[in-house]
Amino acid sequence: FSEGVFPRSLNLLFIYGVRVLGCTDVVIEVHPRQVNYYRRMLGFMPLGPQRPCPRVKGAPAVLLRLKTKVYERELKRWTGQAGPGGAEDEVAENLYARFFSQDQEERIARMLARGRRPMDAEEIRYFGLG
Prior knowledge:
This protein is of the alpha+beta class and 130 residues long. The protein is 42% helix and 15% strand.
C-alpha cells in the first residue's frame, strides 16, 4: 500500500493545498497509534493533545501539523532535487521518495487549478461545514 496509491494520494492532497490553495500548513487528524508513522515518514508534528473525535464515535485522535516549508524542503531532498548529500540509502523509509517531482507537481497543480470549483452552499451543508 505504501508503494503506490497511498503516497500519491497524499501527494495530490499536498499539491492541491500547497500549490493551488496556497496553504501554509497541512493539518491531519490521526489515531494515536499512527502519530509516529506520520512523524517519521513525512515530518508531521503534534499540534495538540489526544482527544476523543466525535466524527468516529469518540475514538482517540491527535492533530498533526506539517509546515509547508518542511514539505518543500523534504520534497526536494527525497525526490533528488536537493543536489548531493541526499539520503539515497534511506529512500525506502520515507514517503517523499514516492511523491511527484517539483516539476511534475507544478504541472499537476496547473491542471487542478483549472478545474477548481468552490463548494456551493448545499455541499457545505452536506459535509457539515456550515
